[in-house]
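User: I'm curious whether this sequence folds into something compact or stays loose and floppy. Could you predict its structure so I can see for myself?
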Amino acid sequence: MTLQDKYKKLKTTIKSYSRAAVAFSGGVDSSFLCRVCFDILGSDDTAAITVVSPLYPQSEIDYSCEIASLIGISHYLLYDNEIGTEILQNPPDRCYYCKKIEFSNIKSKATELGIDTVLDGSNYDDLADYRPGLHALKELGILSPLREAGLTKKEIRKLSRDSGLPTWNKPAFACLASRIPYREIITKEKLFRIERSEEFLKKIGFIQFRVRSHGNLARIEISPYERSKIFDLKKMDKISSVLKSFGFTYVSLELEGYKTGSMNRTLTIK
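Assistant: Here's the prediction. I'll summarize afterward.
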């Protein structure tokens, strides 16, 4: 199936909805989905709903507001400052509990708006990764039209660029809890420390990276094509000093660089 065939299938699917609400993060996938839904269904029958919680940095929330405004779609923020006990315990299926809570709240908001159909931005590539959250979406009846159309991340980036969305080249992002190894207790303090650390790396020019938190040790992952930028003595000293001021005792560099889902490797260790 060609890219245009997949795109046509996506638009046909969305046309079949009378109204739709998109779980919106401001990332590549959900932004593109919002654009297509808005273009096909119109402003009165579409909505973007964003969950605001300690699991997401404020910069991502702010960016989602910018993109929603650019698209023109009605945008609603759901504030939830509490983190469920199952999530704080950080089991390997943490994402299941997180998505169950988040999407239950999103569904409730959609119902309040008179919308029965709730969509998420999962794409076809997500089927190849460990994503227990997808089970929660299935249980709640959340639809994933990008995935159903067979669209990959690379294809969604291309279609986003063609449609003029600035998100087409936005770096991949996952919730802050994904920086903490499974079974290590999650706290708001740890999440805030990670958020501040990553905001600092962004400020000094890094694009695709993660600050993984292992107790009091920060393990920095930087995309392979950016790694050379860190090998400057003054820059390394500054990064070490700043991250330690945020509460880390040690600051290290992952030599192979950033890889999505790298924390899932521990699931194969007995």
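Summary: The longest helix spans residues 94-112. The mean pLDDT is 94.
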